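Subject: for your reference before the review

Hello V.,

The reviewers asked for a structural picture of the protein, and I figured it would be easier to keep everything in one thread rather than splitting it across files. Below is the amino acid sequence we used in the manuscript, unchanged from the supplementary table.
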Amino acid sequence: MNKDEMHEILHMRLAVFRSWSYSSLAERVETDNRNGDCLEHIDGVGSDGTQYQIEFNAFWDDKPDGDIRVLGALSAEPQRRLLGFLPIFMPHLSEAFIMRPDGSFADEDSNNKANKSEMATPGKPSDQIGS
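And here is what came back from the structure prediction:
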């Protein structure tokens, strides 16, 4: 699975939560905090057969009833250990957005500069992960 496919999958899935209202997201933040849950967990298979997982979480960005950050993290097989040996796994790709109480998006002001990050897999070209 290459990084372009990962970006496409994650962006498409995250767009679902961008369509939610602020009140719907705020309700889920509170419910998920109480239950120790996430917005959604997805298991999937890329076009080349690479298995992946995506977990979406929503949380108050600063204070309750303020901005809400929604974060999606995609991990492809094989999963990457932190520092190469610690049994803490790092996602291959993450993407987020921040929704304000008025329903606008903070990333629309910054032209999406600060809401995406990509992590290369040690020992593998960054455009081909999990193969």
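For the response letter, the relevant points are probably these. Residues 29 and 59 are 5 Å apart (CA to CA). The helical segments are 3-18, 22-35.

Happy to draft the paragraph if you're swamped.

O.
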